[in-house]
């Protein structure tokens, strides 16, 4: 019963990723704390401030005050308030980056991509039945 209440409080966001997780997590925290919005996640705070864009309906003003107090609301496009990440990635991994795709991989999956680009990641062998099937498929084109 708490999820629909939180969703209403938050301006009826669609229950798809990431807002479904924000609403669900906040509902659980409300129940665990025994008081609504006593404990609030960083994501809930950012959602209420507008970092996920405009809400479909207004956030309940009383709930907004309880969650963010006097923190300012995001004005304009939320992405304009984020610090650019690529310059830092380019500097940190300049020894590994050979092409634009490497930058993207490092931005999305820094630990895995760094190992892969450094030559430290080794492919794991496929299970025998999968390898046989793959060999059969590859052999079709020959």
What does this protein look like?
The chain is mainly α and 142 residues long. The protein folds into 2 domains: 2-73, no CATH class; 86-140, no CATH class. Helices cover 54% and strands 0% of the residues. It has 8 helices and no strands. The chain has helices at 2-9, 19-33, 42-49, 61-68, 86-92, 100-108, 110-117, 128-140. Helix 1 (2-9) crosses helix 2 (19-33) and helix 6 (100-108) packs across helix 7 (110-117). The N and C termini lie far apart (60 Å). The model has no long low-confidence stretch (mean pLDDT 93).
List the helices and strands and how they pair.
Layout: H1 2-9, H2 19-33, H3 42-49, H4 61-68, H5 86-92, H6 100-108, H7 110-117, H8 128-140
Helix pairs in contact: 1-2, 6-7
List keywords for this structure.
single chain; mainly alpha; 8 helices; 142 residues; 2 domains
Strand content: under 5%
Q: How many H/I helices?
A: 8
Specify the biggest β-sheet.
none
Uncertain runs are: none
- Helix/strand class: mainly alpha
- Shape designation: elongated
Question: How much is the average pLDDT?
Answer: 93
Short description:
By secondary structure, the chain is mainly α.
